[in-house]
């Protein structure tokens, strides 16, 4: 009975209004990313584009890393007319979804073999729209959640993100096989609908008033850009935390941006990738998200984050094993399921930590800074050199390299923990 009550208590937060809203927002956030990550790579590889050009399209994802440049506008700016009708955050949500829908439709209508430069421009447009949507989604879901819901909310955001990514990724592959890429891209736009329903249901989030130092351009810059950064950097250990955020995902990011190219070279068909990677792997991710929530409660913030970092490093090494085995659908399922399990745990634990670091007066700006910093080195490295490294090292050594790149993040976090610089979460009670 005690075990049943403990399990029920662990599950209950996932069915509260805030975390359910985070689920819908996460689905919207994952959709544009999927269309220019896994799906785009498959489309380019299928068209016969050389590896160096395919991995260079990772620059479209690099746009996500520059979110802090326009996050202050979304944090403080108001959409004319619309903000007065439905609120500042929800107005930006509607605008961002409209931009993402238009960019995805444009990308789907183009032929990469006809004009690769125009196709690249459309991919960057999807990246910009998706990054803008991310800024809004992260701000709203953090502001919808209470402090004690942050772990569950982070988990539900990850569930939603993976659902959106899965439906946009696997759905696009299956629809492209029967109806063409244009239909596949257009269909993904429907995945934005749950976020709009959630925004209507939960309403405009309530947050503390942001500081106002006066009128004019100088005051606007101080209030929207300088104040959020000064607030964060004034905290003890802020620079070390930023160093951790910069390097902790570099190995995982470099690894994942090349995975679909890897599968294509191993001879896996679109149908095999859709089933054994995306579909079966999805269950591993869902299990990881739930397990991440339980570990967050049992091990505490620091312990659960450290465990997730170690598991993500091991998952990179598993791809080297798959490269040795070759075309084997069950090996593909096992490797991808483990990677998704590790990613699910990490998404909950690290995501909850980053959210707790944000001052709700500056949610959009500070979380954009942290989340974009988390992937910028990996995306820049992968976009610039990953294709050449694969060709020179081979897949086995390349994936061993991505495992090695995960080690600095683990070491920095251990230092932060020993120095007492990991922010405590009062809602977490270690076992």
Task: Throw out a few tags for this protein.
single chain, 431 residues, mainly alpha, Growth Hormone, Chain: A, 20 helices, 79% helix, disordered C terminus
Briefly summarize what is shown.
This protein is an all-alpha fold. The chain has helices spanning about 1-10, 15-35, 40-45, 50-55, 60, 70-75, 80-85, 90-110, 115-145, 150-180, 180-190, 195-200, 215-235, 240-245, 250-255, 260-265, 270-325, 330-355, 365-405, 405-420. It is globular.
Written description of the protein model:
There is one protein chain. This protein has 20 helices and no strands. By secondary structure, it is mostly helical. It has one domain: Growth Hormone, Chain: A (Up-down Bundle). The chain is globular and about 60 Å long. Helix 9 crosses helix 19 and helix 10 packs across helix 17.
Structure summary, number of beta strands: 0
In round numbers, the mean pLDDT is 81
Proportion in β-strands: under 5%
* CA(first)-CA(last) distance: 19 Å
What pattern of helices and strands is seen along the backbone? HHHHHHHHHHHHHHHHHHHH
Query: How many strands, what sense, and barrel or not for the largest sheet?
Result: none
pLDDT < 50 stretches: 424-431
- CATH topology (level 3) name: Growth Hormone, Chain: A
CATH superfamily: MFS general substrate transporter like domains
Secondary structure: elements and pairs:
Blueprint: H1 2-11, H2 17-36, H3 38-46, H4 51-56, H5 59-62, H6 71-76, H7 82-86, H8 88-109, H9 116-144, H10 150-179, H11 181-188, H12 193-202, H13 217-233, H14 238-247, H15 250-257, H16 259-266, H17 270-325, H18 329-356, H19 363-405, H20 407-418
Helix pairs in contact: 2-9, 2-10, 2-12, 3-16, 8-9, 8-11, 9-19, 10-11, 10-17, 10-18, 14-19, 14-20, 15-19, 17-18, 17-19, 17-20
